[in-house]
Structure prediction request, 338 residues.
Amino acid sequence: MNAATSGESAKVSDFIARGAPALPRLYGDRLVEAARRDPRIVCLAADLRGPTETDIFAEEFPDRFVEAGIAEANMIGMAAGMARCGDVPFVHSFCVFVTRRCYDQIAMQVAYPALPVKIVGFLPGLTTALGVSHQAIDDIALMRALPNMTIIEPSGPEQMAAAVDAALAVDGPVYLRMKRPDAAAPALEPRALSVGRGEVLRSGRDGTIIACGLSVQAALLGADLLAKEGIEAGVVNMATIKPLDETLVVECARRTGLIVVAENHSIIGGLGSAVAETLLESGVAAGFARVGVADRFAEGGSTPYLLTKYGLDASAIVKAFRRASARRDAMRVPTAAR
Prediction:
């Protein structure tokens, strides 16, 4: 690898990319818009204002902004107290820090009393060159296990504003799993997000790929690759991981007999686990496969590099679809669409 190539591979689109073009601040702008309408909204950050887009809020509402420093557990405690006083706190850090590092405080001070604290994490899954310490591959599993907790992960920039609105509409704690855009994008077509409802992006009679967050785009690309082989794969954006749209999951499984779940998270405890639990408890037989981090720690690297190396890209989804198809055929699963 020559020096130029090495230097290019070291450039990442997260908070350590110095001098990079300004990224759209879709989340931060929407939070400020909401705060203009609702004086109850307050904002807390853990020494990561820029990477979590909360510097915008701090500038416009300095009296409603709290800089907690690198003290996530204390930040959660402060937010819980503010919520008991009638505020609607949004707390911010990287996904791994705002879930695992302060898990006990979230459980006892936020989830147990069902307070309207909105926990917002950035850098989900394998999306940073900063390595294992900054890669949240277990955050969905942790938050799924907490009673009263809602989990939302928008498919991309087009759903970030709607994710803020959806979190505000929930009268209780919410975990927002966010990924900032890697680059300035052309004009976006905003998409709605309804808590507890999946979104069918593409219909297909041969199987369904259910995905969340960053994996939605990979699922659409995977469906395109399968279409070139004459295979019709449907794609569902499951932006609400909890509560899960169980009705849609069961409907897709009964119609096609094949489900692939794709997520930028460990295959243990995340969306794939939630879908598998739903299918088994509903008594629905289907060829099934998961695409995610396969029970291992990763390493630092660019997002495309990590997604390819750890089997989270479109080609991995195509392979998983074939595995699920073989399992369905072996089970002789009857389907409504075949």
In short: The chain has 13 helices and twelve strands. The first helix runs from residue 3 to 9. Residues 1-20 have pLDDT under 50 and may be disordered. The first strand starts at residue 41 and ends at 45.
